């Protein structure tokens, strides 16, 4: 069974509103990042792949299985929804065990895998903790553990780091990277830092369209030569914000160091120097380029 | 896998507060309604009383009804139970005159019932009086026989005794009374358990993760349904142990071998269909609407059925969700209604199965987002509109 996901001309409508527009993607083993602002269509795309929503048109194959064969697809997919939770009065172990049964695992496999996975997500000392007593970060880790309990070929995680503190976020990204060693992990997020730290391949969505599909290096290359930095006085900053797309500002007592996007045709002011783009710059440039907004 | 899921669902029910409230209501109702089963004793000649029974003799029914009516007519106060609620009716002068006209059509100058009036004609006249009083009176044709609650003779008592002893082996007679009482609560309480289970995924925001698992919709819904039905049946069986043992003891005292499994048979045949339909209404409407509307629907159905059945508490079956048999014995009445009762119970079992099948279908389609129209029908999936 090949480890790949193919989407061909996938469309999704909610009544008259088009949530996915002719989406074509080829996702291979490893971490795949899906980036886009809130409302770009990421969750819809995740749910369509996970069989939780039907596509209005188009073909989707998950590891060679058409997505219409829901049960077969569900058996090879692990899913961590955006606002994952479980029954509050269940303990961590009970929740894992219940979801393991729903995944079709026998008792022996559950007994072996649950402690191992709880160790992996650092919840080994919380087996008896009730779900309702868990912090947001702990719940996400439980969410990941349940999603890989049946050793799926594909793991889909929707906005997993939203609301986590910086330390939890880093730990979570590392965990996902480890998991992606031998399967497809699709990470949907609006946080550029998550993608930058973990994904080699990414797609960027905007208003239901895939506006970029490639490697991080290609995305950075796309913005090469368009990102500038300058240190200016506080009075000048308003004028710069009007003229350019500012991606970052570092305020100091009397001055501001600013990063901004300038198109090739645009002239930059004296004192501004070209700099190497990071993923956030490249993302902002791409959005700026596609939508023409500032 | 199904067995494991079923056991997990049973355990989850046992851990829920709703279940303990259910048990408390069930036990309180049982203790409050079921009198202690004192067993039966052979009637002895010359006893001060042999008990009471509803007369089946039309003449007696007519006489008792007229006696009541005359008394209420004189006092110009009539007791009625519209929709089951007690109400004193004080009719206007014109209405009293209309009642007087009907009375004059039924009675002769000595206030005796006219010889030439048939029972059917009498029923029609009484029905008119019920209409004048606004319904719910003791003169409604179908409830006339409950006016004639008469003392039993020695022969009546002996016949009843022998019926209970040889036809019901004592246990059957008491099991019917048990089913009558428990049927009342079991036609409403299981809906609370079903709704609680149905809303649990929504409350815990666990639906998406459960939807995405491999388990079939049949396994998920059926494990929940069967666990609910089982966890309702088990305490009912446990509650029946005490009256069942008392019936067996009474049988030994009367020189016969009791029927040890009568209660189980009655619970399976009489109460299980009630539990099945009540729980399936709860599961179906909760899955369909993602809200607790099933409680309202079942509550309304229960209320109407309760007071439709109250017209006659012994042998009221029809298609009422809770067949009534509020007496010990009356084996002949039971024999007469048995075909109707079997039809009724099969109908509700079938309806229960049909509704839970429909629940599986709804769950299946919700699971793949197919019933999600703009995310508005099922509010919990509204987040998808945020795309």
UniProtKB/TrEMBL annotation, chain A:
UniProt xrefs under PROSITE patterns: ABC_TRANSPORTER_1 (PS00211), ABC_TRANSPORTER_2 (PS50893)
Keyword tags: ATP-binding, Nucleotide-binding, Transport
UniProt keyword Secreted, yes or no: no
Domain of life of the organism encoding this protein: Bacteria
Source species of the chain: Anaerosporobacter mobilis DSM 15930
Name of the molecule in the record: ABC-2 type transport system ATP-binding protein
All residue ranges annotated as the ABC transporter domain in the record: 5-232
A UniProt-annotated Pfam family: ABC_tran
Family, similarity comment: Belongs to the ABC transporter superfamily.
GO MF, one example: ATP hydrolysis activity
CDD domains for this protein: ABC_drug_resistance_like (cd03264)
TrEMBL record, chain B:
Keywords in alphabetical order: Membrane, Transmembrane, Transmembrane helix
TM segment ranges: 12-32, 173-195, 225-246, 266-288, 300-322, 346-365
Record protein name field: ABC-2 family transporter protein
Origin species: Anaerosporobacter mobilis DSM 15930
